[in-house]
């Protein structure tokens, strides 16, 4: 005799009637999302033979929404990881079936980004983007939102108030934490600052906060003017080489943006890494290796998993309403990593 679980066993495991299980299986009438999910989880728990069909039925019953996620640089390990986390978070959503399109923008000019926004808004039900703050991009976001398409900024905010929500790291704390570390780990001397662009408001805020920390107490450091790299590894490498050659007494370096692999390359070649306290953003394979080798002192990282989950929750909330309602920005607490925490 077969011990295969029956529909009665499934109904008992899910705490519903057999008629409810039948409605979920055969789509005879509408069942609440929470009830359908409970039946599906019970089916998987007891090994019900039609669990696969149930999963398909539950998926078919949800509304489908198209999401476009516009990230930077396809060759960047951090953005690849971010895209993967956002896709998984959206796939795990229970209220909608999100069809997610991840687009990496290898050109970061305002015109190009605005064009990408315009193109994606023709098909997407909602958009997430890592933007530059520029009038062209702000105006395009305002146009998209006016058409009742939610726009969520990730990592770097915009000056327009039209965005549905901003989800990012607390950049003031990031900059001040970096300054705190440099002030305690570095020897007296000159301190350099590297960032991608002041048009990324997250980097701009982090740089300002780094500098403001040093203004609050007497110290023996000379803060040098910031250098920009457009978050490009080759440009960051060249800028760091110039900084090292022009500043014999360089003892501290803070990278508020990307291009970290280029900075590390220059430090390795200079053979001065032991004399320079280096703090950067984001936990990646390259920065973990640099921490373990002593070329990097600590990392201020974005909690990517929390960010991705918040983005998914934001889209679920926004798309559940008839009209877009702005949501309060989310500033996530920074994560700090040193060699001993790897």
Automatic annotation (TrEMBL):
Under the heading InterPro entries, the entry gives: HTH_LacI (IPR000843), Lambda_DNA-bd_dom_sf (IPR010982), Peripla_BP_I (IPR028082), SBP_2_dom (IPR025997)
Q: Which UniProt keywords apply?
A: DNA-binding, Transcription, Transcription regulation
Please indicate if the UniProt record lists Transcription as a keyword: yes
GO molecular-function terms, A-Z: DNA binding
Q: Which residues belong to any copy of the HTH lacI-type domain?
A: 5-56
Matching entries from PANTHER family are given as: LACI-RELATED TRANSCRIPTIONAL REPRESSOR, TRANSCRIPTIONAL REGULATORY PROTEIN
From the Swiss-Prot or TrEMBL record, give the protein name.
Answer: LacI family DNA-binding transcriptional regulator
Question: What is the organism field in this record?
Answer: Rhodanobacter aciditrophus
């Amino acid at each position: 005799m077969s011990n295969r679980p029956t529909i009665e066993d499934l109904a008992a495991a899910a705490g519903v009637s057999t008629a409810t299980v039948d409605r979920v299986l055969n789509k005879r009438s509408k069942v609440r999302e929470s009830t359908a999910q409970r039946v599906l989880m019970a089916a998987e728990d007891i090994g019900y033979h039609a669990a696969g069909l149930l999963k398909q039925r539950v998926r078919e019953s949800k509304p489908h929404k198209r999401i476009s996620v516009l990230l930077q640089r396809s060759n960047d390990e951090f953005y690849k990881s971010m895209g993967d986390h956002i896709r998984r978070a959206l796939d795990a959503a229970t209220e909608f079936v999100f069809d997610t399109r991840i687009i990496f923008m290898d050109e970061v000019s305002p015109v190009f980004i605005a064009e990408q926004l315009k193109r994606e808004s023709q098909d997407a039900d909602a958009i997430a983007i890592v933007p530059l703050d520029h009038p062209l991009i702000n105006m395009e976001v305002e146009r998209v939102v006016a058409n009742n398409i939610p726009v969520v900024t990730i990592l770097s905010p915009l000056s327009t108030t039209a965005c549905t929500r901003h989800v990012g790291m607390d950049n003031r704390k990031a900059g001040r934490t970096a300054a705190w570390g440099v002030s305690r780990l570095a020897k007296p001397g000159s301190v350099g600052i590297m960032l991608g662009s002041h048009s990324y408001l997250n980097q701009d805020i982090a740089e300002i906060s780094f500098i403001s920390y040093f203004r609050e107490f007497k110290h023996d450091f000379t803060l040098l003017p910031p250098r920009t790299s457009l978050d490009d590894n080759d440009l960051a490498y060249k800028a760091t080489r110039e900084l090292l050659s022009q500043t014999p007494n360089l003892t501290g370096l803070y990278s508020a943006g990307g291009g970290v692999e280029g900075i590390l390359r220059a430090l390795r070649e200079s053979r001065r890494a032991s004399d320079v306290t280096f703090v950067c953003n984001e936990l990646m394979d390259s920065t973990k290796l640099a921490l373990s080798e002593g070329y990097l002192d600590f990392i201020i990282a974005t909690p990517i998993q929390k960010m991705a989950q918040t983005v998914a929750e934001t889209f679920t909330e926004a798309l559940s309403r008839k009209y877009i309602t702005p949501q309060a920005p989310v500033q996530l607490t920074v994560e700090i990593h040193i060699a001993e925490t790897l």
